[in-house]
Amino acid sequence: MPRLAGQIDLAKGEAILDAAVQVLGERGLAASMEEIARRAGVSKQTIYNHYGSKAELVRALVHRRVAGITAPLEMPGADEHPEQALTAFAREMLHALINPRANTMMRVYISGATEAPDVALAVFEAGPKASRGRLADFLAREHADGRLAVDDPAMAAEFFGGMVVGTYQLAGFLGVDLGLTHPQIEVIALEAARRFLRAYSL
C-alpha cells in the first residue's frame, strides 16, 4: 500500500528521532536539520515532510519519552489495580529523572527556550502537560469507577507528580548526582502511591 504524502516508515522515523537526540544533545537547538538528516541517513526534506519544523520534531522526541513513562497507566488491568499502576508510573518518572541523556536534552530545551519559544512550548505540551493529562485521565476513571474520590483529577495529578519528582528533577537538570539506586526508587515510588491513595480513598 503506497504511503501518504509526508508519511515515512517506522524504522526511518525512529532513526530520525535517534539522530535528533544525538545532534541536539551535542549542539543544542541551533543544530541544523541537515546534520540531523545526515546522521539519520535521510534527506532534510524527508524530515520536513514528516515533522514540518524543528519544534514538531522536538515534540515527537518528547512524546516518545512520555509514552514510555505513562505506559503503566494504560496497561490492561491498570484501572483495577491503582496502587500497582501508580507505583509503576512513579518508577518510570524517577528513572527518567536520573537518565543522563534525558537530562541533557532537558537542559538543551531550557537553555534554548528564550531563542526558540515554539520549541519550548512543544516540549511543555508534549512533556509535563501530556504526562499530567494522562495521569488525570487515569484518576478520573478511578473516580468514575468508585475506587477513589478525586473531584479534581487535574489538581490531583499535579499533587502526585510533585510528590514523586520532588527535588530529584532539579538535581537532574543541574547534573547533581543524588545517588538514587534502583531499590531507593522502588521505595519512593511505592510510598508515593500509597500515601496518595490514602489521601484520595473513599
Automatic annotation (TrEMBL):
InterPro entries membership? Homeodomain-like_sf, HTH-type_TetR-like_transc_reg, HTH_TetR, Tet_transcr_reg_TetR-rel_C_sf, TetR_C_Proteobacteria
Q: Pfam families in the record, alphabetically?
A: TetR_C_7 (PF14246), TetR_N (PF00440)
Q: Which residues form the HTH tetR-type domain?
A: 10-69
Sorted alphabetically, which keywords does the UniProt record give?
A: DNA-binding
Q: Which residues bind DNA?
A: 32-51
Q: Which domain of life is it from?
A: Bacteria
Q: What is this protein called?
A: TetR/AcrR family transcriptional regulator
* Species assigned in the record: Phenylobacterium ferrooxidans
